[in-house]
């Protein structure tokens, strides 16, 4: 081949490679919008192939070239990325190496006083399991090895009372057991490791008794300052062998959290009905927050022996039954 022809062919090949390389380097773009996940430990080539398989790119070659050219192939970071149609390959790879991930965590709030069933429903509404799967996972015996503070609680009992109310950051692939583990972990830190459980024990209250009382206080009153007084009244009535007569326990027994209680409700034959049976109910009636747990561990002594919640939520205290009955007429009618 003549020397000039060889030179011309070489120039043509170089120009072709340069143009092709430039096209691959800068102008290839994503074909669709969506969320793309890179699992830990994935190789770069498997990521490029996944992009093609999911329809983000028609070919892996721009990705292989750019990853090799920039040295990015060895620096990809795991996570979930938000990809937008039209993005250039080099820009996407730069995000893959920079860890510009999308926050896909769920923020779920369980209010103070929620029952296990209410928590189960809200967990399921967030897309995590079903109410039934949450309730099935929320029994004491399944968690006693992992959380030894539960050792004194009957294994067959529900975790009602120990599912600490708070706002939790949950992953989309979490299971009900993952949620419960976080709730028990927060309970341990705030109620046990903090020394509150030890304070209750120093007063002669078992873990189950303390949490059960806190769960009643949580549902009986709104004001934090009133909680300690009500806890003092209820502990005193318990020690005196007098019925607690806490309406919140009746509501738990009949499953009626709203509206007035009827005569039939108040007479419900349930061990949770403290208007009918003396002593504490068999277990907590809600999941108390830190305020109620603190009140039950540090009850405030007073001369009061009765209380009621007025229609506006105010707690009205009285020392005698006569005064209490008069307050019923004054504040509830």
Write a structural description.
- With 333 residues, the protein is mainly alpha-helical.
- The chain folds into 3 domains: 3-98, no CATH class; 106-192, no CATH class; 201-302, no CATH class.
- Helix content is 47%, strand content 8%.
- The chain is built from 14 helices and 6 strands.
- The chain has helices spanning 3-27, 44-53, 61-70, 89-98, 116-125, 131-137, 176-192, 196-202, 207-220, 224-239, 247-254, 263-266, 290-297, 321-332; strands spanning 34-38, 79-83, 106-109, 167-170, 306-309, 315-318.
- The strands form 3 sheets. Strands 1-2 form a two-stranded antiparallel ribbon. The protein has a two-stranded antiparallel ribbon with strand order 3-4.
- A hairpin with a 5-residue loop joins strand 5 and strand 6.
- Helix 1 (3-27) crosses helix 3 (61-70) and helix 5 packs across helix 6 (131-137).
- The longest helix has 25 residues, at 3-27.
- The chain starts with a helix and ends with a helix.
- The model is unreliable at 12-27 (pLDDT under 50).
């Amino acid at each position: 081949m003549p020397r000039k022809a060889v030179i011309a062919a070489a120039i043509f090949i170089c120009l072709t490679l340069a143009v092709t390389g430039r096209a691959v380097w800068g102008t290839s773009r994503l074909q669709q919008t969506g969320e793309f996940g890179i699992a830990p430990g994935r190789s770069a080539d498997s990521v490029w192939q996944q992009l093609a398989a999911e329809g983000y790119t028609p070919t892996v070659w721009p990705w292989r070239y750019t990853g090799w050219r920039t040295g990015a192939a060895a620096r990809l970071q795991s996570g979930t990325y938000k990809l937008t149609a039209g993005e250039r390959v080099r820009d996407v790879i730069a995000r893959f190496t920079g860890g510009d991930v999308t926050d896909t965590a769920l923020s779920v709030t369980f209010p103070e006083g929620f029952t296990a069933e209410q928590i189960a429903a809200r967990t399921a509404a967030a897309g995590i399991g079903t109410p039934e799967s949450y309730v099935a996972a929320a029994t004491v015996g399944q968690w006693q090895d992992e959380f030894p503070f539960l050792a004194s609680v009957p294994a067959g009992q529900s975790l009602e009372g120990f599912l600490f109310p708070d706002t939790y950051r949950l992953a989309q692939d979490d299971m009900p057991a993952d949620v419960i583990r976080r709730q028990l972990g927060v309970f341990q830190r705030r109620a046990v490791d903090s020394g509150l459980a030890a304070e209750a024990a120093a007063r002669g209250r078992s873990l189950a008794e303390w949490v059960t009382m806190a769960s009643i206080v949580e549902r009986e009153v709104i004001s934090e300052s009133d909680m300690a007084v009500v806890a003092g009244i209820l502990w005193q009535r318990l020690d005196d062998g007098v019925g607690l007569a806490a309406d919140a326990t009746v509501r738990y027994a009949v499953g009626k959290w709203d509206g007035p209680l009827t005569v039939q409700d108040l007479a419900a034959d349930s061990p949770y009905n403290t208007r009918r049976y003396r002593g504490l109910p068999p277990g907590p009636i809600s999941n108390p927050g830190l305020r109620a747990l603190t009140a039950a561990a540090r009850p405030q002594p007073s001369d009061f022996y009765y209380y009621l919640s007025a229609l506006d939520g105010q707690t009205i205290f009285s020392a005698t039954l006569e005064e209490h009955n008069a307050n019923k007429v004054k504040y509830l009618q």
